[in-house]
Design a protein that fits this description.
The strands form 6 sheets. A 5-stranded mixed β-sheet has the order 13-12-8-14-15, with helices on both faces. Strands 5-4-7-6 form a 4-stranded mixed β-sheet. Strands 1-2-3 form a 3-stranded antiparallel β-sheet, with no helix packed on it. By secondary structure, the chain is α+β, with helices and mostly antiparallel strands. It is elongated. It is built from 34 helices and 18 strands. Helix 2 packs parallel to helix 4 and helix 20 packs antiparallel against helix 28.
Length: 1038
């Protein structure tokens, strides 16, 4: 059958003529290309003829004989996805000029390339591979050079003739002319470039200040300043490329720039934004690695690492920045570092219901553990526990023995019963509980390990339904692989007691690692544990943790919560890429806040310590006795429960119920004898009194026996006893209620009424006597003549004595039957109780003070080493102007960081003698001091503020405006280094213009404003300079 479709044109209806014709390309009518159709993608030509034996006759271009049109280099998997190449319109011309007989060959069904869904995925993979292996590595150096020429994207530059000539091909490469749509902030322009293998399109576009959307033949490019704005915006809000592109399209359409193709901007802008972010990260990592090669190396050792690895030193300079970390042990700081671990099941990803497969990975440095590391730890945990690898098989619980005892497990300081209670109260301790369905979610959550300063050390992607322990163990193993062999770690985890128990019980970690870990529970989750567990694992009661709370992971989840919705439907590697990007943003943000963090910790610690010390002095207690009481409390409240048998417990409860019943019968007999005595119906008074005395003595012995049996019961047995007692009362009430509904109900009621009326005087007399005894007992308690902790029974109201309900006070067992022992001071004495709390708080504050002093020294030592490495890198980059420019930018930004740190940590004393220098010299600090202007007002607002005597804004300076005080401290520090008054404060007038000097950028792009630019600000889209008039009133105040 012969198709009547043209070879490379759009598809036409198939002819239904019975006569078969062989149609060549010359016989097909040439179609004129419609206007504005340069972005159309022409489909692959169908076979010309199908011969017997399922042979297909097709046509091939002469450009590359021996290969089908689907396999041509121009239409390969990479360029086929560039469905906007304007040179695709030349296919018809080339094919029409080709010879028909020289371009025919036969292909079988096995060799035919049928359009399928996998071809689109393969194109995407090939394009991703080309971006990763070819385009991005080749653009790093040109990108850094463009940043230097444009002053970190502050200026737009025009190519010089010699630069344009550099892109001219000097070899016989296959060339292609592209017309590319360039999107800027407020307009669109068409750029025509002539590209080849020597001068690819992405490289030429980057030299013009644009970034391409495709690696070979892009049809759209985006301005670098616009991409930089979007990149900064998407780490502060929910990244939404669709909403941004729709907004940009509407904004440009209002200015007369329309994009006619449906969904044209979103897909291409998304590609450009993604790979621009990859380029920025790659360039940043290259500069960091270059500086790292010039840092002083740690001395070699045969015993392993002598200091934390370079990776950890880059993650948190305060925790791991000390060159000799063992100096901190002179202050008895153990553990050496604090870390916290927690899991988040809201950061999950839905399963791919379409079966598209995983997306390709990104060529950036990641904080996520590899899948091999997590899987190997999972296999190790299962082998240690003796479980099979199949997930569906459930482990049988051991049969319960008759004797159930409580004792310590090996290495644990908390009884088994307490650990079991903590495991039952926390969902995280139950590995079998499904927190996220694996049927609907491919990735169920993220587990993080953070340091004490909320810096992410590593993340682990979770794929199980529950919070399995192998994720936490994989993070712990990764941490100790990057630490010296004798560095200790304090680990805070919301179920730290359960993790400690499992590690000891199943030997999940090596003994060399386990003895260096101090387990604790994060502060927020500690109150859900048993009290005995809190005594051992609470960080406020455990030595060495200071004021660390272990809730850094919760703050991380709060910072990442805006990513929950978009990452729910993203690809696997795209989700990791977005989380890595956000972590980098948080790292850069926290780096400048180290000084604030240390200052806040120090001030809070000093305040709490002062308050606690003053309160402890007011109690006037002996510190040695208080510590001994705390030791006794820990020892007593962490003792195991006595061994009990279930059978014996049931027998004891049955005996108590029998004794209570006997006591009720004895009380009834006594009441009858007393009634007879009152009514005078006694023949022998002496014998009756003797019998009454014996009965009362017997009643006292039964009551004492019952009290002793009750005191031997535990809490659970007492609860069960009360339940049985109440259940019996309800059963009696139900029986009586059903009985009253019988035929004899009326007779019974009349009989009861007659009996009560006959015994009314005796019952009222007993009530009066009982109430008198209660009054006497209350008086003895007020006079402190009763046993300790005695509680008087509740009096019985004479009114309504015969209408008692089941919830009446008369049924409550309140009185003197309980045996009261002499309680210890830590339990009964309120003063001792308060003194223990205050003493523990002072101890933690002392530990916090010592640790903050060490961290202040660590920050300064790291700054000195970092500055030294930066200076060495600058010295080696004298011949490379591009690298020298970026090293100078980093040096200026580093100076700004040092100035901010010095201002905040000045009140904190050093743990050991430190030099005054933080790396940069005083001259460099003076030259790099930024000028920060407070907010200014309009003229009308200024006038109102000046003449409003009732609301003088100047008086608010001393009322807790911390931001303004920080500005004044920065200015004072600048005066200290410069040795003179601030220049702008002397010369500023209402017409003076000034510019913001600093542009914090993840790439450490310094935004220097040259002296010639201080007086003017560009209006051609330059957002680096901001013109701000100075308020004369503010000038006068400052």
């Amino acid at each position: 059958m012969v198709s009547s479709n043209p070879i490379a044109g759009p598809s036409t209806p198939t002819s239904h003529n019975t006569q078969h014709k062989l149609v060549t390309s010359s016989m097909a009518k040439r179609r004129r290309r419609p206007q504005q159709s340069s972005n159309f993608h022409l489909p692959i030509a169908p076979p010309l003829l199908v011969l017997p034996g399922r042979k297909r006759l097709t046509q091939q271009s002469l450009n590359n004989p021996g290969r089908s049109q689907q396999q041509q280099p121009f239409c390969d998997a990479d360029s086929a996805n560039q469905h906007d190449s304007p040179s695709a319109g030349n296919i018809l011309d080339r094919e029409e000029r080709s010879s028909f007989y020289n371009s025919l060959h036969y292909i079988s069904d096995a060799d035919s390339i049928l359009p399928s869904r996998s071809n689109g995925r393969q194109k995407k993979m090939n394009q991703w591979r080309r971006w990763t292996t070819e385009v991005i590595p080749s653009l790093i150096a040109p990108y850094l050079a463009y940043l230097r020429k444009s002053t970190s994207l502050h200026d737009r530059i025009e190519l010089q003739p010699d630069e344009v000539a550099a892109f001219q091909c000097k070899s016989s490469c296959r060339r292609r002319v592209l017309e590319i749509t360039c999107v800027l902030f407020n307009y669109i322009e068409i750029l025509r470039i002539d590209c080849c293998a020597c001068a690819p399109a992405p490289l030429q576009l980057l030299s013009h200040g644009y970034f391409a959307c495709a690696p070979i033949a892009p049809s759209l490019a985006v301005d670098l300043q616009l991409l930089e704005l979007v990149k900064t915006l998407f780490v502060h809000i929910t990244p939404n490329t669709t909403a941004w592109c729709e907004t940009l399209e509407v904004f440009l359409a209002g200015r007369g720039y329309h994009l006619t193709t449906k969904d044209n901007l979103r897909r291409r802008f998304g590609n450009a934004y993604h790979w621009y972010s990859v380029l920025c990260m790659s360039a940043e990592d290259q500069l960091s690695n270059l500086i790292g090669t010039h840092r002083p190396l740690s001395p070699p050792s045969t015993e392993g690492l002598t200091r934390p690895s370079d990776y950890l030193r880059s993650r948190c300079p305060i925790c791991f920045g000390l060159d000799d970390w063992r100096k901190s042990r002179t202050l008895n700081l153990k553990p050496d570092i604090h870390t916290c671990i927690d899991a988040c099941f809201t950061q999950k990803r839905s399963a791919d219901q379409r079966g598209g497969g995983p997306d390709p990975s990104n060529p950036i440095r990641s904080v996520f553990l590899s899948d091999d590391e997590v899987t190997s730890m999972e296999v190790h945990v299962r082998s240690c526990r003796g479980r099979p690898l199949d997930r569906g098989r459930k482990r049988k619980r051991p049969a319960a023995t008759e004797e159930e005892g409580d004792d310590y497990e090996d290495g644990m300081r908390v009884p088994t019963s307490v650990l079991d209670g903590c495991g039952e109260s926390f969902l995280a301790a139950d590995e079998k509980r499904e927190k996220a369905s694996t049927q609907f979610f491919a990735d169920t959550g993220v587990m993080a390990m953070l340091c004490r300063h909320d810096r992410v050390l590593w993340l682990a992607n979770m794929t199980s339904a529950g919070e399995k322990q192998h994720y936490a163990l994989a993070l712990i193993k990764k941490l100790f692989d990057n630490l010296p062999t004798d560095m200790t770690v304090g680990l805070l985890y919301d179920i730290g007691c359960q993790l400690h128990r499992s590690c000891l019980k199943y030997r999940l970690l090596d003994d060399a690692v386990l003895r260096r870990i101090t387990f604790a529970i994060s502060v927020f989750h500690a109150y859900g544990h048993q009290w005995a567990c809190q005594i051992i694992y609470h960080p406020r009661k455990c030595e060495g943790f200071g004021l660390s709370d272990g809730e850094g992971c919760e703050r991380l989840w709060s910072a990442l919560k805006h990513l929950i919705a978009p990452l729910r439907v993203s690809g696997f590697h795209q989700r990791l890429f977005v989380l890595d990007t956000q972590v980098r943003h948080l790292d850069n943000k926290n780096l400048s806040l180290y000084g604030n963090w240390l200052s806040r910790r120090w001030n809070n610690c000093v305040k709490k310590k002062s308050t606690a010390a003053q309160a402890l002095r007011e109690l006037s207690v002996d510190e040695t006795c208080v510590r001994q009481e705390w030791k006794s409390q820990v020892e007593y409240q962490t003792k195991p429960l006595p061994r009990r048998s279930k059978t014996n417990n049931d027998e004891e409860i049955s005996k108590i119920l029998s004794l209570e019943k006997s006591l009720v019968e004895i009380d009834g007999a006594l009441r009858c004898m007393e009634t007879q005595l009152c009514m005078g119906n006694i023949n022998n008074l002496t014998e009756h009194n003797l019998r009454l005395i014996e009965e009362r003595a017997h009643r006292s012995r039964v009551a004492d026996t019952l009290s002793r049996w009750k005191t031997r019961l535990g809490i659970s047995q007492r609860t069960r006893l009360e339940q049985l007692r109440h259940n019996r009362k309800f059963e009696i009430e139900k029986l009586e209620r059903s009985y009253r509904q019988t035929v004899n109900e009326r007779k019974l009621n009349s009989h009861v009424d007659a009996t009560i009326q006959r015994r009314n005087p005796t019952i009222r007399k007993l009530v009066s006597s009982y109430n008198n005894l209660c009054t006497d007992l209350s008086a003895l308690i007020r006079q402190r003549r009763s046993p300790p902790n005695a509680i008087p029974p509740n009096p019985i109201s004479p009114i309504g004595i015969f209408d008692l309900d089941i919830d009446a006070d008369i049924w409550e067992d309140v009185g003197l039957n309980d045996v009261v022992l002499d309680p210890p001071d830590w339990l009964a004495d309120e003063v001792t109780h308060a003194a223990i709390k205050l003493l523990l708080e002072i101890d933690r504050c002392n530990e916090e003070e010592s640790r903050v002093k060490v961290e202040r020294c660590a920050l300064q030592e790291w700054a000195i080493l970092e500055w030294d490495g930066l200076q060495r890198a600058r010295a080696h980059a004298n011949d490379d102007e591009v690298i020298l420019y970026h090293m100078n930018c980093r040096a200026r930004q580093f100076i700004v960081l040092v100035l901010g740190w010095q201002t905040k940590v000045r009140p904190i004393p050093c743990a050991w003698p430190m030099p005054d220098c933080w790396g940069p010299s005083q001259t460099e600090l003076a030259n790099g001091t930024p000028v920060v202007y407070p907010d200014v007002h309009d003229d009308e607002d200024v006038e109102d503020d000046v003449w409003d005597d009732g609301d003088d804004w100047e008086s608010d300076i001393g009322c807790g405006d911390e931001e303004l005080m920080d500005v004044l401290e920065d200015i004072a520090l600048a005066d200290q280094y410069r040795g003179q008054e601030v220049a702008w404060a002397k010369t500023a007038t209402p017409s003076t213009s000034s510019c913001l000097l600093l542009d914090f950028n993840p790439l450490f792009h310094w935004s220097p404003l040259l002296p010639a630019r201080h007086s003017t600000c560009s209006t051609s889209g330059n957002i680096g300079a901001i013109q701000t008039p100075i308020n004369p009133t503010l000038h006068k105040t400052l």
